[in-house]
Design a protein that fits this description.
The complex is a heterodimer of chains A (621) and B (205).
Chain A lengths: L4 E6 L3 H13 L4 E6 L2 H10 L4 E4 L8 H11 L5 E5 L4 H9 L4 E4 L6 H38 L3 E5 L5 E4 L1 H7 L3 H4 L10 H17 L1 E10 L5 E12 L5 E10 L1 H23 L3 E6 L4 E4 L1 H7 L3 H4 L4 H4 L5 H14 L1 E9 L5 E10 L6 E8 L1 H55 L6 H30 L6 E4 H15 L7 E5 L5 E4 L1 H18 L10 E8 L2 E8 L27 H11 L4 E5 L5 E8 L2
Parallel strand pairs in A: 1-2, 1-3, 3-4, 4-5, 17-19
Antiparallel strand pairs in A: 6-7, 6-10, 8-9, 9-10, 11-12, 11-15, 13-14, 14-15, 16-18, 19-20, 20-22, 21-22
Helix pairs in contact in A: 2-3, 14-15, 16-17, 17-18
Chain B lengths: L5 E5 L3 H13 L3 E5 L2 H7 L6 E6 L7 H10 L6 E5 L4 H9 L4 E4 L6 H30 L4 H11 L4 H8 L3 H14 L5 H15 L1
Parallel strand pairs in B: 1-2, 1-3, 3-4, 4-5
Classes of the chains: A alpha+beta (621), B alpha/beta (205).
C-alpha cells in the first residue's frame, strides 16, 4: 500500500495534468493523479471514492467548475476541493470559496499548488478528526443522557436561586412528581420547614465551596410523605467561572435512617434492660475477655466496669472452678448454649456461687453472652436444707427402728401377758387346800397356747429377716461401681469431690447382690467424702481402683483425708464403732457382713502419703 | 343387785381378757368381761361394788376415756388401767383423774392381784362410808323443822341460853329439843353430834 496522495483532477488538457503531477513530484509529494474530462466521468469517480483531494479547472469545455464543485460537495463533502485555473476573477474566487471550495490556485502560479494541497489535506484531516470527535461526543452524550435518565440515583440540577433546571426519572419516581410540575419551581417547595432553613444556610456555602457531600435533607413527596435524602453535589461553572448550575445526586436514606433509628432504639432498650437487670450480664470473646458487663455484674463481682473490661473470665473464676470452666466453654462452643454452676472470687476475696447461662451470639464470630446469677444464698439454704433433710432421715430411720422394735415388743408381750396372768392364777389356785383341777388344766392349756403364739411371732420375724437374703446375679464390676457413684451423687445432689476411676478391667463379671454391693460402695465412698470435708475442693482426691487377681476382684476406695483413727483402727468394722459425732457405727459393720456373705473380705489400710484405703474382694463369677 | 364385789374386765384382746378373768377367779372373786369400754358402760348398773380393770389402748373408747365417763356419771368404781405403753403424760392424766393404779405391762407376778385387792378394799370402804352417810342423812330427816333449826345453831356453837334468846323460846324448851335431837341422831354426846352433822354437810357440798 503506498502512501501517495490520490488526486482526482477534472481537466481537459493532459499537459496540465502532467504539469501538476510534475509540480507535486518536484515538491516531494508522492501523488497519483487521475484525470477526468467529462461530467459523467467526474461523477463516477466521486461515487467510487478513494480520492484524497479533488482538483478542478474552473473553465471546462464540457463541464463548468461551479457545477463540479457542487456535485463534489454533495458526493464527498469531506474531500477538499481546489480550483486550478488559468484565469479566475476575484468574483469567481469568492463564489468558489463560498460554494465550498477549499482553495484556488492559478496555473501561472503553480508554485502555490503543493502548499495549497498540503494545507487542504491537513485541514481535511483536521476536519475529519473534529467530526470523529464530535461524533464521539454526540454518542457519549447520548449514553450519558440514557444513563442519567435511567440511573437508579436521583439527580437534580438547580439554578443560582435554587430553582429546578433538570431532574431525572429516578428523582421523579422518588418524589412522585411529573417533570413539568417541578422544572422552574424552587427546591424549597420540596423541603420540610426545618430543612428549608437548612437549605438557606447551606446553599450559599455550597455555591462558594463548589461541592457538598453527605448532607441530609428531609424532602416532601407530592403525596406529603417525607423521604430522607443524602445529597452529594458539584457546582458547574461557565467559562468565566460564573455559577451555571448545580449537579446533585440524591440518595434515598429513609430506610437506612429508619433502620439506624430502630437499631439505636434496640441498643437503648438493650442497655436499659441489661443495666436494670437483676442478673449479671457479660459479653466475652472466645478467650474469655470481657467486652461488656452490666451494673448487676459489677455489683456481684465487686469490680468496677472499667476494671472488668481489662479482665478475662478465668481471672474471676475461683481456683477450684477453673477446670470445670474450661469444660463449660468447650460445651458452649460445641452446642452454642450451656447452663452451669460455677464459682467466682470477688474483688474482696469472697467466693460466690453463680449460675451461668451462656450462649454463642449467632452470626458473630467467637462472641458469647452470659447471664450470671448469684446463687450463694440459695446454695447455702439448699445445703442447709440438705443437711436438715439428712438429719431428718437419720432421725426418722432411728425412730422407724424404734417403732419397729416397739411393735415387735408389743406383739411378743401380748402372749407373755396372758402367760403371766394364767401362771399367777394357777399359783393362786394351787395355794388353796382344794384346788380346782379343771381350772388348772384349762389355764395351763392357755399358757401353752400363748407360748405357741409367742413362738409363732418370733418365727414370722425370722422369716421376714430371711427374705432379705442376698439375691445374686451376674454383673460387670465397672457397672456396679458406676451405679453406686450415681446413687451417691443423687443422694448428695452432685458429688462433692471428683471420683477418679482406675479400673484394671471394668468388664470382669462378679456374682453379687447388686443392691448390697452398691450399699457397701456407697458406704465407703460416703466415708471417703466425709473424710475430705475439711479439705479444699481442689485438694480432694478419691480414687476407686479395681484389681483382678486369681479368682477374685479387689475393689479399693482411697482418699487423701486424715487417715484411719488411732487408736481404733482395729475396731473399724465392729458394730456401733464410729468416729463421727452423728454416726451410728453401722456402715462398715453392715459392709463387712455383706462382703463376707458374698464370700469376700474387707479391710482397711493407711494410704501412703496420708489418707485411708478401704479394700474388699469379691469372687469372680 | 349382789353385794358381792365384782371385777369388771375391759380389754379388746380376747386372750388377755380371758387370762385376767382366770386370775380374778383364782382369787376367789367374780369377774365379768367386756370387749370394749362402750359395752361395759351399756351394761354396768350404777352402785354395783367391785373394781374395773381396763386396757389403756383399745379401738374406740380408750381406758382413759372410760375412766372420765365414769367420773362424769358419778360412778366411783376404782379403776386399774393396764398399759403396754408406759407413757408419762397418759399416766399422769390417769392419776390426776383419780384412777387407783396404772400398771405397766409386763409387771411383777403379784402386781395385778395386789392392785385388784387394794381396789376392792377401797371400794368396800367407800361403800361403807356411803352407807354411813346414808344412815346419817336418814336420821337427819327424822328431825322436825324446829329441831333442825336448833341443831344448826348447836353446830354453830351457840349456847342453850343464846338459842333460847334468839328463838324467843324458854331455856327449858331448848334443853328438851337438844335431848330429842341427840336421841334421834343416835349421838351420845354433843361432840358426836358435831361429827355427824359435819359428815352429812361435807357429803352434800
Amino acid at each position: 500500500m503506498d502512501n501517495s496522495v490520490r488526486i482526482l483532477y477534472l481537466e481537459d488538457d493532459p499537459a496540465d495534468a502532467e504539469l501538476v503531477q510534475a509540480t507535486l513530484d518536484a515538491a516531494g509529494m508522492a501523488c497519483q493523479v487521475t484525470r477526468v474530462e467529462t461530467c459523467e466521468e467526474f461523477r463516477r469517480a466521486l461515487a467510487e471514492g478513494g480520492y484524497d483531494i479533488v482538483l478542478a479547472d474552473y473553465t471546462l469545455p464540457a463541464y463548468d467548475g461551479m457545477s463540479a464543485l457542487q456535485r463534489a460537495r454533495e458526493l464527498s463533502p469531506v474531500v477538499p476541493f481546489i480550483f486550478v485555473s488559468g484565469t479566475m476573477g476575484e468574483n469567481a474566487a469568492i463564489e468558489a470559496l463560498t460554494g465550498g471550495a477549499t482553495d484556488y490556485v492559478l496555473k501561472h502560479r503553480l508554485s502555490r499548488l503543493a502548499p495549497a494541497v498540503k494545507r487542504a489535506l491537513r485541514e481535511a484531516e483536521n476536519s475529519r478528526e473534529r467530526q470523529r470527535a464530535e461524533q464521539a461526543l454526540r454518542e457519549s452524550e447520548k449514553r450519558f443522557r440514557l444513563l442519567y435518565e435511567n440511573a437508579p440515583l436521583a439527580y437534580q440540577s438547580l439554578d443560582a436561586d435554587g430553582r429546578f433546571l433538570e431532574v431525572n426519572a429516578a428523582w421523579l419516581r422518588l418524589l412522585g412528581y411529573l417533570r413539568e410540575e417541578v422544572i422552574g419551581r424552587s427546591v424549597l417547595e420540596c423541603l420540610t420547614p426545618p430543612c428549608q432553613e437548612l437549605f438557606r444556610e447551606r446553599f450559599p456555602r455550597f455555591k462558594a465551596a463548589g461541592e457538598m457531600h453527605d448532607v441530609e435533607f428531609d424532602m416532601v413527596r407530592k403525596d406529603g410523605t417525607v423521604v430522607i435524602v443524602s445529597v452529594d453535589g458539584l457546582i458547574a461553572y461557565d467559562e468565566t467561572r460564573e455559577f451555571r448550575e448545580t449537579h446533585c445526586i440524591l440518595h434515598d436514606v429513609t430506610r437506612r435512617k429508619q433502620m439506624e433509628e430502630s437499631l439505636r432504639e434496640h441498643e437503648r432498650e438493650y442497655q436499659t434492660v441489661l443495666q436494670s437487670a437483676m442478673d449479671g450480664f457479660a459479653v466475652a470473646d472466645a478467650r474469655g475477655r470481657l467486652l461488656d458487663v452490666n451494673e448487676a455484674y459489677c455489683r456481684m463481682i465487686g469490680y468496677s466496669r472499667n476494671e472488668l473490661l481489662q479482665m478475662s473470665i478465668p481471672d474471676l473464676q475461683a481456683v477450684d472452678a477453673q477446670a470445670d470452666a474450661a469444660r463449660y466453654v468447650e460445651e458452649v462452643c460445641r452446642q452454642g448454649f450451656a447452663r452451669f454452676e460455677s464459682r467466682f472470687r470477688r474483688k474482696d476475696g469472697r467466693l460466690i456461687d453463680v449460675e451461668v447461662s451462656a450462649s454463642l451470639v449467632p452470626h458473630v464470630a467467637e462472641r458469647c453472652y452470659a447471664f450470671v446469677r448469684d446463687v450463694t444464698e440459695r446454695k447455702r439454704s439448699e445445703e442447709q436444707l440438705q443437711r436438715l433433710r439428712s438429719e431428718l432421715t437419720h432421725v426418722s430411720r432411728l425412730s422407724t427402728a424404734g417403732e419397729m422394735v416397739a411393735g415387735i415388743a408389743h406383739e411378743v408381750n401380748k402372749p407373755l401377758y396372758s402367760i403371766a396372768n394364767y401362771a399367777k392364777a394357777c399359783c393362786n389356785v394351787l395355794a388353796l387346800d382344794e384346788p380346782d383341777l379343771e381350772d388348772l388344766r384349762e389355764w395351763t392349756r392357755e399358757i401353752a397356747a400363748a407360748a405357741a403364739r409367742a413362738g409363732e411371732i418370733t418365727r414370722r420375724l425370722l422369716d421376714f429377716v430371711r427374705r432379705a437374703e442376698p439375691h445374686r446375679i451376674s454383673a460387670r464390676i465397672g457397672e456396679v461401681i458406676e451405679e453406686a457413684i450415681s446413687l451417691l451423687a443423687a443422694e448428695t445432689r452432685g458429688l462433692p469431690v471428683v471420683v477418679r476411676r482406675q479400673f484394671a478391667d471394668a468388664e470382669t463379671v462378679v456374682n453379687v447382690d447388686r443392691i448390697q454391693i452398691q450399699q457397701v460402695l456407697v458406704n465407703l465412698l460416703r466415708n471417703a467424702c466425709e473424710a475430705l470435708e475439711a479439705k479444699d475442693a481442689a485438694a480432694k482426691e478419691v480414687t476407686i481402683r479395681t484389681a483382678v487377681g486369681g479368682d477374685s476382684v479387689e475393689v479399693s476406695v482411697a482418699d487423701n483425708g486424715p487417715g484411719l483413727p488411732d487408736p481404733g483402727a482395729s475396731r473399724l468394722f465392729e458394730p456401733f464403732f464410729t468416729t463421727k459425732p452423728e454416726g451410728l457405727g453401722m456402715g462398715l459393720a453392715i459392709s463387712k457382713t455383706i462382703v463376707e456373705a458374698h464370700g469376700g473380705r474387707i479391710w482397711a489400710t493407711a494410704r501412703p502419703g496420708g489418707g485411708a484405703t478401704f479394700h474388699f474382694t469379691l469372687p469372680k463369677a | 343387785m349382789s353385794d358381792q364385789p365384782t371385777v369388771f374386765v375391759v380389754d379388746d384382746d380376747e386372750q388377755a381378757r380371758k387370762s385376767i378373768c382366770a386370775l380374778v377367779k383364782s382369787m376367789g372373786l367374780r369377774a365379768e368381761s367386756f370387749a370394749s369400754a362402750e359395752a361395759f358402760l351399756a351394761r354396768y348398773a350404777a352402785g354395783r361394788p367391785g373394781c374395773l380393770v381396763t386396757d389403756l389402748r383399745m379401738p374406740g373408747m380408750s381406758g382413759l376415756d372410760l375412766q372420765e365417763q365414769l367420773i362424769q356419771r358419778g360412778i366411783l368404781l376404782p379403776v386399774i388401767v393396764v398399759t403396754a405403753y408406759a407413757r408419762t403424760p397418759s399416766t399422769v392424766r390417769a392419776i390426776q383423774a383419780g384412777a387407783v393404779t396404772v400398771l405397766d405391762r409386763p409387771y411383777a407376778e403379784d402386781t395385778l392381784c395386789d392392785a385388784i385387792s387394794a381396789a376392792l378394799v377401797k371400794d368396800t370402804a367407800a361403800q361403807a362410808e356411803q352407807d354411813r352417810l346414808q344412815a346419817i342423812r336418814s336420821r337427819l330427816e327424822r328431825l322436825t323443822p324446829a329441831e333442825r333449826t336448833v341443831l344448826d345453831m348447836i353446830v354453830r356453837g351457840r349456847s342453850n341460853k343464846a338459842i333460847a334468846k334468839e328463838l324467843d323460846i324458854s331455856l327449858r324448851t331448848v334443853a328438851n329439843r337438844r335431848r330429842e335431837i341427840l336421841a334421834k341422831m343416835e349421838a351420845d354426846s354433843t361432840a358426836a353430834l358435831f361429827r355427824l352433822a359435819i359428815a352429812a354437810n361435807a357429803d352434800r357440798s
